[in-house]
Amino acid sequence: LTGLANLMQDVLWCFSQVKGTIDVGVAEADIISTVEFNHSGELLATGDKGGRVVIFQREQESKNQPHRRGEYNVYSTFQSHEPEFDYLKSLEIEEKINKIRWLPQQNAAYFLLSTNDKTVKLWKVSERDKRPEGYNLKDEDGRLRDPSMITVLRVPVLRPMDLMVEATPRRVFANAHTYHINSISVNSDYETYMSADDLRINLWNFEITNQSFNIVDIKPANMEELTEVITAAEFHPHHCNTFVYSSSKGTIRLCDMRAAALCDRHAKFFEEPEDPSNRSFFSEIISSISDVKFSHSGRFIMTRDYLTIKVWDLNMENRPIETYQVHDYLRSKLCSLYENDCIFDKFECVWNGSDSVIMTGSYNNFFRMFDRNTKRDVTLEASRENSKPRAVLKPRKVCVGGKRRKDEISVDSLDFGKKILHTAWHPAENIIAVAATNNLYIFQDKVN
Amino acid sequence: QEMEDKVISPEKVEEAKLKARYPHLGQKPGGSDFLRKRLQKGQKYFDSGDYNMAKAKMKNKQLPTATPDKTEVTGDHIPTPQDLPQRKPSLVASKLAG
């Protein structure tokens, strides 16, 4: 079913829902900083700069309304991280949630990892729909009963109650990162996970919070010699010994944990050769990889740098097999993008369930999809104007110069304050979640 | 003699613009200084007192002023939970959950 629907010309994306408020001035805490579906797609989690996590659950599809696919409604929300102060360095530690990663579901409860710059937490989200009633020593309000008044012994029974969803922190993995955590990744063994900061990567066991193994360390002995930092890292989806990490110099290293305890020597090194005559002041900055993702198949990796998305075959290190231009028109705007810091924006990228389509965000609340098979691409917009239920999204086009057609927008009119850095794709269906600053948009393909 | 058509890449044009505006810009943009600045992100305070005062200022802006009903309990007796002013929830729920 998904194979047919993945051809770009057959997929019409429609507005489904939008979460969040329309504020004239957006509070910094409300800015969404991460979005992630769980493995079944039943749950969708968001994290924000205020350290809060909101989990949406897909409602059961109603037989009465077959044209309406299950909608996502709030399931649970909690404060994951709070601002802290590093007394040693006199630096504030932001509560912003950098990443959320779900664990595969193994029982009735849901588990996720959430991280800020310094601390990773394992959260358990579980439902309670029964409560015990008829205690002997306390009454229904919890007040202790006078023991001398108790003459009969009874067995408490479980009675149904209104559904309550509780989130509890089960593990706190702290004090293992000197630098800022940019990635977390759950291993396919479901026993370990990794956390990566600018210079180091640590391996954790879910059960053990007071120890972690350092598996990558690129800190030079002399910080003056620092030339690159780690920007993202991820475990292979099936091989629990393999992971990749990307760098600010546009390279990717694949490491095998069986080779050595400290994976400072890569097993594979992915780098695209650069024409030295093309080199400019901006070259290294725009080649910095902001996100790296394995395909679901585990055969490819996708990397996002400032202007492009590249797909690499794990078996070919010397160049990517595919390169997609996200917004090449920005090449002639690099000077002002450097001055307003936009050139340092970290865009993420995602695969669809069958690895046939990839998606990433851009500016002006635009996001882009590339079909790897048909080589077609489309630009869509997340905006309140296109938010009528089931309204089909119209493709957008940026005009580079010269004559601007009626529906096009010129590069100079793009709103660089409206950036889509975080998106997510349902693991099996054509449902996507797009974070536009403080709003979360959910789009689905048109159901015939 | 052949004249070569030289097309200057848009990147090099942008670089020239930047260098014109900031002539003292470092030779190695991706090098040490730039990276080290990245490693130390986050606002620096003088000390924890400075930090707590800055946080208190922000909170006062957001929340209404505390009611003066609860008189201070000092000296006479050991305060009980009922005597202490109610702790205001310092963190607001996400608007996505609204």
TrEMBL record, chain A:
Superkingdom, taxonomy of origin: Eukaryota
SMART domains named among the record's database cross-references: WD40
Gene Ontology molecular function, alphabetical: protein phosphatase regulator activity
GO cellular component labels: protein phosphatase type 2A complex
InterPro entries xrefs: PP2A_PR55, PP2A_PR55_CS, WD40/YVTN_repeat-like_dom_sf, WD40_repeat_dom_sf, WD40_rpt
SUPFAM superfamilies: WD40 repeat-like
Keywords attached to this entry: Repeat, WD repeat
Family per similarity comment: Belongs to the phosphatase 2A regulatory subunit B family.
UniProt name for this protein: Serine/threonine-protein phosphatase 2A 55 kDa regulatory subunit B
Organism: Rhinopomastus cyanomelas
Species classification: Eukaryota, Metazoa, Chordata, Craniata, Vertebrata
UniProtKB/TrEMBL annotation, chain B:
Record region (Disordered): 59-98
GO biological process: cell division
Pfam families on file: Endosulfine
Listed InterPro entries: Endosulphine
Predominant location: cytoplasm
Localization of this protein: Cytoplasm
GO cellular component terms attached to this protein's record: cytoplasm
Keyword tags: Cell cycle, Cell division, Cytoplasm, Mitosis, Phosphoprotein, Protein phosphatase inhibitor
A GO molecular function held by the record: protein phosphatase inhibitor activity
Family under the similarity heading: Belongs to the endosulfine family.
Biological function: Protein phosphatase inhibitor that specifically inhibits protein phosphatase 2A (PP2A) during mitosis.
Protein name per its UniProtKB record: ARP19 protein
